[in-house]
Structure formats: structure tokens, C-alpha cells
Amino acid sequence: MSDFQCKFYLLDGAETLECKEGNAEYVIKLADRPFPDSLLSFVYYDINSWEPRFHEADRALMEFYQSRDAKCLKPVQKLLDDFKDGHPYFFYLWLDWSNKLIQATPDCKNPTKLLPHKELAHVPSNLATMQQQILRLFQTVLDASITDVDFSVRVQAYEQAPSLQKFDFQPMKISFEFVEEKQFAEVLYPQNMYDLIDFSLRECIRQRIAMRTCKNCGRYFALTVHGSTEYCSRVFDSRGRTCKEVGAMRQYAQVHASDELLKIYRREYKRRFAWIRAGKISQEAFSAWSKEAQKEKEKCENGKISQKEFAHWLKQ
Q1: Which of 104, 154, 156, 162 has an alpha carbon within 20 to 30 A of 120's alpha carbon?
Q2: CA atoms of 141 and 149, how far apart (whole Å)
Q3: What would the pLDDT profile of 168-178 be if each residue is shown by its tens digit?
């Protein structure tokens, strides 16, 4: 009978998932992405696209229960192999169910006990529900834009929300250990894939990690370094540019456009001001024009009219 054990912990802002299965040992380090990037990437992962394949795997399990033909389990294993590459959290599901498939041989007296009916089929919907619940927690508790309500008050209000809207935190097996020959840390011994998500989310709350929506992609990111940043570091386009890079270029373009707009306005302002001394217009007429010009300039800055249209108006 095959057996395995996993442990998950945070150290120096990085996440590590260690799994041992017999003589095999898997270590998944996420040091290239600081905590809680894994949780954030999970929240926006397209889990719904996997639903047909999970239902297909569930039907394959039903066929196996009836025929006891091990070939029926191949689509299930293929699903698990593909799914584990989608996100680090999914590695546990792969390891857990791969072990179950090995144990559920045709000689097994009760395969349904090892391979519970509908458990796989419910994975996408369970994860999708968790995604929505996590987002709601971000919006009501951790959102950096909420500055007028104390953190403890936000937590209390969240706890009083309807149960279906709240994340269902579960009891977990956690120890305090000396890890990587560096320091002590809380270590989770997950009993299922969902424990990894649970542990990560509660750590966000414990650390009071502030979240902000990116001005470019509209997704939440953690304010772990520079609290004033408005753009996340996600890859945004096919050219590999991040939201920070795209945002910086956009800001430059806006500033440049604003500067150009100001040049056009100042040039016409000086020209008309000179008309007063030349006696071509009165001071009252100039003041009236200046007020209207300011309104048209604001329209241009807000995108209601183009720069070309504003320049044309000035010359009329």
C-alpha cells in the first residue's frame, strides 16, 4: 500500500511544498514569487474550463466500478497529470489521487471507498466557490482603499455575513518546526488540496496583507513592498510586458499628451493676450474666451474631445 506525506510552510516570504512518497521526494519552491502570489494566481485561475474533463473522469470511474477494468482509469490519470501543472496547489490532488488509483486495483474489494463517487466531479465547483469567497474577503477586509474603517471592525462585519458568502475555514494539522536549517515556522500537514488554500488565506489575514486592484488589469495584488504602487507585476500581453511596464508607458503617454495640450493652450493664450495691447479685443472678451478655453481643455483632458478638435476650437 503506497503512502505519502506533504508539508507546506512559509519562510522569508517564500512558499514551500514538500512531499514524500515512498522513496520519491518532491519539493516545490515558489521563491521566485513572494507570498501571497500563489493565492492570488489561484483566485484568477480559469477553473471552469476544466469542468468537462472532471465530469469525464468521473464517468470513467463509474465504468471502472462496473467493469473493474484498469484501462478505465487512464482518462482519470491523464486528467490528474495535466491538472497538476496548472497551479502549485493542484499538485496535492495529483499525488493524492494517483495513489488512490494505484491502490484501487481490480483486486480491491471496495474501490468506491478509495475513489469516492462524485468527489472529482465536484472539484471545479468547489474551487470556483472558494475563488468567489476569497475575492469577497479581499473586497471587504483586506482592500487597501478601505481607510475609514478599522481592521477589526471589517473582520467583524465579514464574520456576520451570510455563511455561503464567507470562506469556510477548517481545522488543520499545523505544527511548529525548525525548517531548512534556518528558523522555526508554522508547518501545515495538508489533508487535502483545499488546506493549502485555507492556510494561505488565513496567513494573509494574520499578516493583514493589504490588497489593491491593478489600474491596468483590474485584478488584486498584494502591497508587500511599495504601498504607493498602482500596478501589479503580472504579464499583461503577448509581448511579455507586465502591467507595471504597460502602466508606466501609459502614464508617460498621458503626461506627454497633457504637456502637449498645455503648449497648445499657452501658445493661443499668449497670442490673444497680445491682442489686448494691440486693441484688437477687450479685456472682457479675453476673459470670456479664457473661461471657455479652460472648459474645452478639461474636455480634452477627460477624453470627451480629441487634441485635434481642441486645437481647432482654439483657432476659431
Answers
A1: 162
A2: 10
A3: 999 999 999 99
- Residue pair 35/10 in contact by the 8 Å Cβ criterion: yes
In a domain, 238, yes or no: no
Are 12 and 151 in a shared domain?
Answer: yes
Q: Buried (b) or exposed (e) across 205-239, using 16+ Cβ within 10 A?
A: beeebbbbbbebbebbbbeeeeeeeebbebebeee
- Which residue range forms the structural domain that includes residue 70? 4-202
pTM given for the model: 0.75
What is the arrangement of strands in the sheet containing 174-179, beginning at the earlier edge strand?
A: 24-29, 14-21, 4-11, 183-188, 174-179
Packed helices 193-207 and 123-137: angle between N→C axes, nearest 10 degrees: 0
* 86 and 144, same domain (yes or no): yes
> How do residues 261-283 score in pLDDT, each as one tens digit?
667 777 777 777 787 877 788 88
Nearest residue to 217 via CA among 247, 240, 238:
247
